Amino acid sequence: MIRMQGKSRLRHVILTIALALAPAPAFAIDEALLPRNLSPWGMFLGADIIVKTVMIGLAVASVVTWTVWLAKTVELRRKSALAVQRTRALEGRMKLAEAAERTGDAHDAVAQLIQSCAKEAELSGGIVDDGLQERVALRLERVEAAMSRQIARGTGVLATIGATAPFVGLFGTVWGIMNAFIGISESHTTSLAVVAPGIAEALLATALGLVAAIPAVVIYNHLVRGIANYRALLGDASAQLMLLVSRQRDISDFRLARAAE
């Protein structure tokens, strides 16, 4: 009995020593070598070159979005205030020649409308009739269209960013998850420490896509409303100019009628 217990203990000791000296499995992971910095900057530094490119592109798109917002907001406020000021001046008892003289060499939208109207009146030899009104209306329409295109420049970039940024972020997400599965295949383990970095990079790309897209859509809609209001101001200025031309025609007709008497 004692001899059997001694043999059993000896076998146990030999088995313990063998397990301790056996080489580690090929799929064992050195935990110290796994990335542990999962901060946004750390994930960016540890990301694949494709995912890095996606992240940089989305960051640049976000900067462009806020730059366009600041520039167009300042431009809209300045031009809208000037358009209101000039339109109110046209509401008084003012002649077309006087309005053109006041604008001088200004290049704002309402000044361009006034100068175009005065130019057509000059080319018509001072004859105010239905033909002049039609020609003036055509000129004003063309100037309004040109000024509307000018004020809307840059907003198309916002529409493009808002439409494409989520899909670009999704591409980075797919690429990051694909890298995570490649890491699982190479390490032969489903340890979360192996999968986490790739999934974190993928989620970061998704987040950057939303950060770029959501403000772009909101700002685009805001600027579209501002541009529509600006176009309405130009329409009011054109209407005032047409009324001014019509009043001058009525005065001319009245003078001709009195002369005929």
Automatic annotation (TrEMBL):
PANTHER family: BIOPOLYMER TRANSPORT PROTEIN EXBB, PROTEIN TOLQ. One of its GO terms (cellular component) is plasma membrane. GO terms for molecular function: transmembrane transporter activity. Keywords: Cell inner membrane, Cell membrane, Membrane, Protein transport, Signal, Transmembrane, Transmembrane helix, Transport. It is found in: Cell inner membrane; Membrane. It is a multi-pass membrane protein. Belongs to the exbB/tolQ family. Its main location: membrane. Involved in the TonB-dependent energy-dependent transport of various receptor-bound substrates. Protects ExbD from proteolytic degradation and functionally stabilizes TonB. The accessory proteins ExbB and ExbD seem to form a complex with TonB. It comes from the Bacteria. This is Biopolymer transport protein ExbB. InterPro entries: ExbB/TolQ_transport, MotA_ExbB_proton_chnl, TonB_ExbB_1. Residues 1-28 form the signal peptide. One of its GO terms (biological process) is protein transport. It comes from Bradyrhizobium diazoefficiens (strain JCM 10833 / BCRC 13528 / IAM 13628 / NBRC 14792 / USDA 110). The chain crosses the membrane at residues 44-71, 157-182, 202-223. Residues 123-229 form the MotA/TolQ/ExbB proton channel domain.
